[in-house]
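Subgroup meeting minutes
Present: P.N., E.W., G.H.
Scribe: E.W.

1. P.N. recapped why we're keeping a running log of single-chain structure predictions: easier to compare across weeks, and new members can see raw inputs and outputs side by side.
2. G.H. added today's entry (154 aa).
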Amino acid sequence: MNTEELKNKIIGVISPAINALGLDLDRVEFGKAGRKGLLRVFIDKREGVTIDDCERVSREIAAALEVEDPIPYSYVLEVSSPGLDRPLREPKDFKRFSGKTIRVTTREPIERQTFFIGEIAEAGENEVALLLPKGREIVIPYKNISKARLEVEV
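Output recorded in log:
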């Protein structure tokens, strides 16, 4: 079983437990940490994730993983939130944070730029419109976005 298949199997095992606790699975990262595996599970909810949420999810998914045993070797489990500067990957992420400031790196230049910081003015199914400084607006197709993150507002 390759890493992607194992990751999908893990997601199938832990998703129901996370959803039952009223949280969403943001993403799963699986790799090596020395001789052991490292399973990182990022959870989210609209009001923000607390330490108690992480502890509850950790206990629940550890139990589910122990029963199903999809990982054939020892591993370390980490559960956390995506963070204040969370990555935006799908149209639903951009829609959820409409009105917030983000930083975007594009694969191909738009108006001779590949880096933008602006407020999400509108998030559609295929593209996002950013309101840039000085009132300028730019539309970026999702397929042209290589990286997008929330900008931490101080």
